[in-house]
Amino acid sequence: MAVDTSDSVCPTLRDEPLSDEKPQDDAASTPSQGDEEIQACTTEDSGEPPDGGLQAWLQVVTGHLVAFNSWGYLISFGIFQPYYESQFSLPPSTISWIGSLEVCLIFFIGTFSGRAFDAGYYRTALAVGLFLQILAIFMTSIASSYWQVLLAQGICQGLGNGIIFAPTIANMSTYFTSKKTIAISAGACGAGTGGIVFPLIAQQLLPKIGFRWTVRVMGLVVAVSSMIIMIIAKTRLKARKAGPLVEWAAFKEPAYVLFAAAMFFTLWPTWISYNYVSLT
Q1: Which family does the entry's similarity section mention (predicted)?
Q2: Residue-range definition of the domain harbouring residue 204
C-alpha cells in the first residue's frame, strides 16, 4: 500500500508545480504589445554605435558637404559685400543685413530642424533644405534690387542652411563613440573647404564672366554636392515621434545656460570679419 500510495501521490505532487509554473513561464515569455514596443525602441536606441566602417564615414562625408554648402558659402560673404555696395549704392551696414540674416537663421532654424531629425524626417529635411539653398543661389544670380537679394540670399538661403545643418551634425554623432571628436571635426572642416573654394571661384571667374554667371557656377557646385549628400545620407536610430518641439528643460541646467551665454558673446563679433574682409 505504501508503494501504491507513493506512486499515486508523487506524480500528482510532481505535476502540480509544473502545471502551476507553466502558465507563469508562458506569461513571462509572451510580452504584451506595449512591452514589445518598448523593447524594440530600446534595442534600436541603445545599440552600440559602429564607431567606424564605411556607412559611418560616409556620414562624415555628408557632414563635410553640408558644412561646405552652408557655412562655406556663408563665410564667403566677403565676395558679395563690396559688389552689393557698389551695385545698389547702399552703406555697408545695410548690405551686411543679408549676411547677418543668414547667420541668424542657420542657428535659429536649427532649434526646430533638430526635432525633425528626432522624428525620423532627416532625409526629408535634407531634401527641403538643399532645394532652398540651390533656389536661393540661382535667385540671387537674377536679383536686380537689394530687397530681392535680401529675400533670396539672406532669408531663403538662411532657411535652407538652418534646416540641414543641425540634423546632420546630430546624425554624425550617432555613428561614433571614441572617434566622435575626429568625425565631427572632419565634418565641420567642410566650412573651411567652402571658405577656400567659393572665393577661388569668384577670383577666377568674376573678371571673365561677371557676377551673375559666377554665382550660377557656385550654384552648380552646390547642386553637385547636394546630389552626393542625398545619395549617401542615412540615419541609424529609430525615429522618436513623441517629444517637445523645443527642449526647454535644457535651460534648467546651469552648465548649459552658461555655455549658451558664452557662445552668444563669443560669436557676436566673429562675423564682422567675414562680412567686411574682401575675398576677391
Answers
A1: Belongs to the major facilitator superfamily. Monocarboxylate porter (TC 2.A.1.13) family.
A2: 51-235
The per-residue pLDDT for range 82-110, each reduced to its tens digit, is 999 999 999 999 999 999 999 999 999 98
- Residue at 24 is within a domain: no
Count of domains for the chain: 1
Q: Which residues contact 57 (CB under 8 A, 6 or more apart)?
A: 183
pLDDT in tens, 170-192: 999 999 999 999 999 999 999 99
Within-domain flag for 171: yes
Specify if 273 maps to a domain.
no
pLDDT band at 280 (very low <50, low <70, confident <90, very high): low
- Can you say whether residue 243 is alpha, beta or left, with left for phi > 0 and alpha for psi between -120 and 50 degrees? left
pLDDT at 39 exceeding the cut of 70: no
